[in-house]
Amino acid sequence: MPRTLSTSDMVTPGRLSPPPTEPTDGEQAGQPFLDGAPSSASLDTLIQHLVPTADYYPEARVRKFGPKLLQLLAEWTETFPRDFQEESTIGHLKDVVGRIAPCDEAYRKRMHQLLQALHQKLAALGQGSEGFMGADKPISYRTKPPASIHRELLGICSDPYTLAQQLTHVELERLRHIGPEEFVQAFVNKDPLASTKPCFNDKTNNLEAYVKWFNRLCYLVATEICMPAKKKQRAQVIEFFIDVARECFNIGNFNSLMAIISGMNMSPVSRLKKTWAKVKTAKFFILEHQMDPTGNFCNYRTALRGAAHRSLTAHSSREKIVIPFFSLLIKDIYFLNEGCANRLPNGHVNFEKFLELAKQVGEFITWKQVECPFEQDPSITHYLYTAPIFSEDGLYLASYESESPENQTEKERWKSLRSSILGKT
Predict the structure, then answer these.
(1) What is the pTM of this model?
(2) Which domains does the chain have, with CATH numbers?
(3) CA pair distance 31, 335, nearest whole angstrom
(4) N or C, which end of the chain has less CB nearby within 10 Å?
(5) pLDDT tens per residue across span 250-287
(6) What GO CC annotations are associated with the protein (predicted)?
(7) Cα Rg of the chain, angstroms
């Protein structure tokens, strides 16, 4: 009689008793699992654990297999709902539902709930990230809105703690729309002319929108600093953003923190020496040190691990917040994917690589699901989305008109910008 494995035998690591197979080169017979976890194996060996034969087969009775299948489908549709956007895939899912639901009333009810939840998720995904980005395109200096229309940020929100909380609202809202499969799509279709960059497409629109949000926040910070005519006001804006950045760090919002620091380090801002002379820069240097790229962002990674540990042991929603520096997260996943082979020299699947990828993406999934504990202020978030921002040339021109060019290079650039943007000679 063929030996029958129970459902738990099928899915519990370390309890699989595979059918006897001939070892392949570099593979010991019956040893694809080490210490209860997969280490490496050929695809043929893995398939043999799952496919029935004349002498070996998994338990196929629906009443025993059903719970595991339900669990698989529930986790699949919850984590990767975009996999079911195609009609053909939905058809396969409904076919499975039709096969197991009639066997038990509990299955039928659970599968109905699963399909309802999936339809809701697909409807939400259909809305996409449209409307997230308002004035996405930077404006030139010439089209600067009059003061009566354009209200500076401090006129909307003068409390750095409040702004940091509203930035966290924006970050979590954007993160929530990014599906883990977007990382796969970005790297599978990477730009061959830019080997270190992912390739954005219609299947990665939420990921791309989040990268654009980071860039927008950088330029918004620089615009707010360069816009005031008086250096005292510019210094006040810089100190305000330093306090916002510090609160972002305390919250665990590292993406906004890096965007603010990057905005203040843009050349049109950093060249304002008379303005910076009026700023108490000690707090800013501390934040810069935390986000220093030296040693592959060693200081930031230490802070991120601390925030992640705090999140695991959190007693409040605020302590659960972890918003990573997103561009670095993308690069980490990219280089892990590109730098490690999918297969080992003996042809086995490289489980270590895929387990590490799963760990990093799994952490991201956990972090993006945290509910923001701060009350949203629509007037502030609307400003963050829609306030006009200067282009790089517009920032330089505003900077030169705030503090005159100091050398010949700056003077020539100022003259060129005035001619091209303002139409002056």
Answers:
(1) 0.74
(2) 40-126 (no CATH), 153-390 (1.10.840.10)
(3) 30
(4) N
(5) 999 999 999 999 999 999 999 999 999 999 999 999 99
(6) plasma membrane
(7) 27
